[in-house]
Write a structure and sequence with these properties.
162 residues, mainly alpha
């Protein structure tokens, strides 16, 4: 409100309340992530390049918005509308990944299960960064890439070594 030079009264005439503000902020963040990820995945040349581009796009969008990501994944997720939006974006990402996995013919792996496994593991790294403070922004890319690379053997249809 200060940056926009808008009074509290004027601000809330545009929104029905705090929950609506949260929903709008989270929706904007999710839209930014979606646009960046789709743009980069369309340019990818292979699996490793796709992971790198996807991670770079994600960190580029969320890195400067750590507080909003924290809020979106914790308190705001208690809002039914925000929770629904988050769930829909996770499902969209898992669907996009599953299509890519299926196109690769990932050695008999279940594309949906593998996609959701990857989404869940990536989500946990983002939580470690945004909510738990276990990672610095500079470490987030490496943590996300490590998760992606851990899934590479399954995506390639090879068994990983113990």
């Amino acid at each position: 409100m200060l940056a926009a030079r808008v009074s509290t009264t004027a601000f809330y005439t545009r929104f029905g309340g705090k929950e609506e503000v949260l929903r709008a902020l989270v929706q904007r963040l999710l839209d930014q992530v979606d646009v960046a990820a789709r743009r980069e995945l369309a340019l990818a040349h292979g699996l490793k390049d796709g992971f790198r581009r996807g991670v770079d796009a994600l960190v580029e969008v969320i890195g400067p918005q750590r507080e909003l990501v924290h809020l979106a994944l914790t308190q705001a997720a208690a809002s039914p509308e925000v929770n629904k939006a988050l769930g829909a974006r996770y499902a969209s990402l898992a669907g996009l990944l599953a299509m890519q996995i299926e196109a690769l013919g990932a050695g008999g792996a279940n594309p949906d299960a593998l996609a959701w496994s990857l989404v869940g593991a990536l989500h946990m790294q983002v939580l470690r960064w945004a909510a738990y403070g276990q990672l610095e922004t500079e470490q987030l890319s490496a943590a996300l890439l490590a998760v992606a690379q851990t899934h590479l053997p399954a995506l390639r249809g090879k068994k990983s070594k113990p």
